[in-house]
């Protein structure tokens, strides 16, 4: 009998041993067989048998969810390989990394691969969340799965952060030092946080590091967290995430909600083949990157030599940048917590049923505007912290030499608590009451320009009339640069805090409306506090130094 590829393939696929491992009968390439192939496969059964045709387009999901899981998978495999050559002690860790670089066969490649895959997973997971939001895929019945996805994003950051220390070089130890110092500013549970009830030997930072500094105990704890605890917890949430995707339905909802019979195609091979192609392309790119780009490794960690500047991992540089404008308990603890809680609350606050299952800025203008505003602000802060902050955390343009000494920042000042309380009350009460109180819809563009013009005119009059008195009251000058910041802050508050919510969310129920406005005003308030520091050198708006409570 003449052998051919098809003959051999048929004999293998129909052999009893093969059939014992893979469920199903003989393959006939029918719609039923293709559905059975999905249902009977341990990896593919999380897919439905059929999907709407537009859901398999690359430009709908960009393959980001599958790539995130694929990167977690390859990180687990490459991490296990690296564990064979790594010992988590301060005397051996750095030497083991050096051995991987120069002694172990392909050790340098696997270390590079693991490092860059971790960074890529952080980026892709963030963009996956953005994609899910922009397609409205967090709406009913997928609200809880959005919460699970938010937890997975946090776990992805923690996985990367906990692995940052393991090379035990100067980059690692000082990045972790910067990051872990924020834990000591936790309210109540941090030795340096407001209303502290603990000391430096039993606070949140001590629990994280196993000591008062980044040393042997910290390295062991981060090793266990990175290699055991966080992967285990992430695996559990991934199982829940995939299960809920399958049970809740995929996010490509019908374009016409009245027409449930939109054209569908078989998942096998239409979607599965595309997923494998995306994975192969990502793997090829990552492999090439690992070959040609060496993962950073500086000299061995030394707690007595502090680099200047000492920077946190890039994904936390936005928080480090905010330390310029806020106390550490706000920048390092409160704001990240509010960001996570705010993300989890989105599907329960947003009751707009439009724009589900497809990209549309017009269908959900309010939600999209503020979500993208927050994302843009986060990445801008990361770029500033990465490329524009040099020695002593001074501002250096890319073309400036870090050897050039920058003068220290000007002295700061704070208004009285009475003035600060009035300003905070006006800011939050005005932002909550005015959009709801103005029941009639007002022309957005018309009143936007009228408002900005009135703000600019008022600011100019303020400069001409009160410039001298302002300097007497505060000791600060009121120049045209300060007037610019007044116009910017007032216009931002007027548009984002009053006009936009008045137009789009004034009809929400009171609980949803108040919670939405609080999150909105706090996000805008971050940018306004930055403006107050840059424009007027204001340090605190409200301060109770006895309790370390400073805003």
Give a description of the structure.
This protein folds into 3 domains: 5-45, no CATH class; 59-393, Cytochrome Bc1 Complex, Chain C (Up-down Bundle); 417-550, no CATH class. It has helices at residues 5-13, 16-21, 31-39, 58-61, 64-83, 93-102, 107-134, 143-163, 170-181, 204-209, 216-248, 267-292, 317-322, 328-349, 365-387, 417-437, 444-474, 480-504, 510-536; strands at residues 50-52, 264-266, 543-544, 549-550. By secondary structure, the chain is an all-alpha fold. The radius of gyration is 28 Å and the shape is globular.
Find the structural class using helix and strand composition: mainly alpha
> What sequence of helices (H) and strands (E) makes up the elements?
HHHEHHHHHHHHEHHHHHHHHEE
- Total beta strand runs: 4
**What is the strand content?**
under 5%
CATH architecture of the largest domain: Up-down Bundle
Main sheet overview: 2 strands, antiparallel
Major sheet: arrangement of strands: 1-2
Q: Percent helix among the residues?
A: 55-70%
How many domains would you count in the coordinates?
A: 3
CATH superfamily annotation of the largest domain = Cytochrome Bc1 Complex, Chain C
The low-pLDDT segments are none
* End-to-end separation: 85 Å
User: What global shape is seen?
Assistant: globular
CATH class (first level) name of the largest domain: Mainly Alpha
């Amino acid at each position: 009998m003449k052998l051919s590829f098809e003959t051999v393939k048929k004999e293998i696929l129909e052999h009893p041993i093969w059939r014992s491992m893979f469920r199903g009968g003989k393959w006939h390439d029918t719609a039923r067989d293709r559905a059975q192939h999905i249902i009977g496969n341990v990896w593919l059964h999380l897919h439905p048998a059929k999907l709407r045709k537009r859901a398999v387009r690359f430009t709908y999901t960009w393959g980001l969810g599958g790539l995130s899981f694929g990167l977690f998978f390859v990180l687990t495999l490459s991490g296990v390989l690296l564990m064979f050559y790594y010992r988590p002690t301060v005397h051996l860790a750095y030497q083991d990394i050096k051995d991987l670089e120069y002694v172990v066969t392909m050790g340098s490649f696997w270390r590079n691969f693991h490092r860059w895959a971790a960074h890529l997973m952080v980026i892709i997971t963030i963009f996956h969340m953005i994609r899910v939001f922009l397609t409205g895929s967090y709406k009913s019945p997928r609200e809880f799965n959005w919460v699970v996805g938010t937890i997975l994003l946090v776990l992805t950051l923690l996985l990367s952060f906990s692995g940052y220390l393991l090379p035990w070089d100067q980059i690692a130890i000082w990045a972790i030092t910067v990051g872990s110092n924020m834990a000591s500013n936790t309210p109540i549970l941090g030795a340096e946080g407001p209303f502290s009830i603990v000391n430096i030997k039993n606070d949140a930072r001590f629990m994280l590091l196993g000591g008062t500094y980044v040393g042997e105990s910290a390295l062991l704890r981060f090793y266990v967290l990175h290699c055991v605890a966080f992967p285990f917890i992430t695996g559990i949430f991934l199982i829940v995430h995939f299960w809920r995707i399958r049970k809740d339905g995929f996010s490509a909802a019908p374009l016409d909600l009245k027409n449930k019979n939109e054209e569908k195609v078989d998942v096998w091979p239409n979607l599965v083949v595309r997923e494998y192609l995306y994975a192969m392309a990502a793997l090829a790119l990552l492999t090439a990157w690992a070959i040609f780009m060496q993962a950073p490794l500086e000299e061995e960690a030394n707690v007595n030599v502090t680099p200047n500047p000492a920077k946190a991992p890039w994904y936390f540089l936005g928080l480090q940048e905010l330390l310029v404008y806020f106390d550490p308990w706000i920048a390092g603890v409160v704001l990240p917590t509010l960001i996570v809680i705010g993300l989890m609350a989105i599907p329960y606050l947003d009751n707009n049923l439009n724009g589900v299952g497809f990209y549309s800025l017009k269908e959900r203008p309010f939600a999209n505007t503020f979500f993208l505003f927050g994302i843009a602000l986060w990445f801008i802060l990361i770029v500033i912290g990465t490329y524009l902050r040099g020695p002593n955390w001074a501002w250096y343009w890319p073309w400036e030499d870090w050897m050039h000494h920058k003068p220290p920042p000007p002295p700061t000042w704070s208004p009285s608590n009475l003035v600060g309380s009035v300003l905070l009350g006006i800011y939050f009460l005005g932002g909550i009451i005015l959009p709801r109180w103005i029941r009639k819809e007002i022309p957005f563009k018309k009143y936007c320009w009228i408002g900005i013009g009135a703000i600019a005119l008022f600011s100019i009059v303020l400069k001409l009339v009160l410039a001298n008195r302002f300097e007497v009251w505060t000791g600060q000058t009121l120049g045209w640069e300060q007037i610019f910041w007044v116009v910017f802050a007032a216009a931002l508050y007027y548009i984002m805090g009053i006009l936009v919510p008045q137009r789009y969310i004034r009809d929400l129920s009171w609980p949803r409306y108040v919670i939405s406005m609080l999150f909105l005003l706090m996000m805008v308030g971050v940018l306004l506090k930055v403006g107050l520091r840059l424009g007027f050198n204001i340090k605190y708006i409200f301060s109770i130094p006895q309790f370390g409570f400073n805003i």
